[in-house]
What does this fold into?
Amino acid sequence: MKATIERATLLRCMSHVQSVVERRNTIPILSNVLIDAAEDGTVKVMATDLDLQIVETVSASNVETPGAITVSAHLLNDIIRKLSEGSQVQLDAADNRLEIRSGRARFKLPTLPRDDFPVIVEGDLPTSFELPAKQLAELIDRTRFAISTEETRYYLNGIFLHVTDDDEPVLKAAATDGHRLARFTLPRPEGAAGMPDVIVPRKAVGEIRKLIEESDGTVLIDLSASKIRFTISGEGGVVLTSKLIDGTFPDYSRVIPTGNDKLLKVDPRLFFEGVDRVATIATEKTRAVKMGLDKDKVILSVTSPDNGNAAEELEAEYSSDLFEIGFNANYLKDILGQIDSDTVELHLADAGAPTLIRKDEGSPALYVLMPMRV
It folds into this structure.
């Protein structure tokens, strides 16, 4: 294989694919990327961790000899990063070595044969639909912070996607760790009818979010009950394929309260800052912030046996009974950070019942937060 690629093009591609590669690998080939240069002047770069696979296609300045080789992903990425801006990078594979030339710099790296490189077999992916990249990004941002990191409850380690016919056909994304729940709803895309319920793993969610960061196009999503493939349109194109979590997501709709009769309306930004300030003195044991609700005000307080206490009063719209409730300060801030409006609604029942949080009734995003004893 012999090909020449512009440094900026190769660096952008490598920054995408190398993040799939785990830093520590017991199987040497999984530390490598597969570089496959074709006669038509395109170069495919591929990485995998056996559960997740990414393939990005870039245009080479020229391909002198087609062929394929695998080489250390992180090493290649570091080398390309340190080469001069605007330079051309020549990749020349021969005798189990990849020679990299750019300007006066020369590197020779050990390689492994392409035939050893594992490929995820996608099989049949019967469901296929498109989402605008911006919409997919919002769906991920509004839910992924609630994904559980508890490995024993592996079925909560991702975003749950499913379609329902409530008042109208919709696609819902949900994530929960048992303490909080985030749900995002959008009109069901054309082609998504009858799709299986799927749980997209946390790592795949993170990778696809990075890939669509600068994209203004659409993302084609193909899936079956066991695999999902994201195809991002644009220059070259990137294809991310992931295995899905094999488990049953709990019926989360049962924890969404419907009869909470106390309504608190407050500015989410001021609320976030107030919670953040009083939580400064909280320790691991006392990360609860207490909310005292009174007519048109909310009093935030934290009491720590080690660090004393803190309190702050905020203006709010509230006209129900006086009562107190406690929440995990970090969980509350995570949710408030998702609300991009002048007011946030908190629908409360009592100090032991889950609280419903949303921007307003028409908001596609909805959050449920379990209280803490304070």
Notes: The chain has a mean pLDDT of 94.
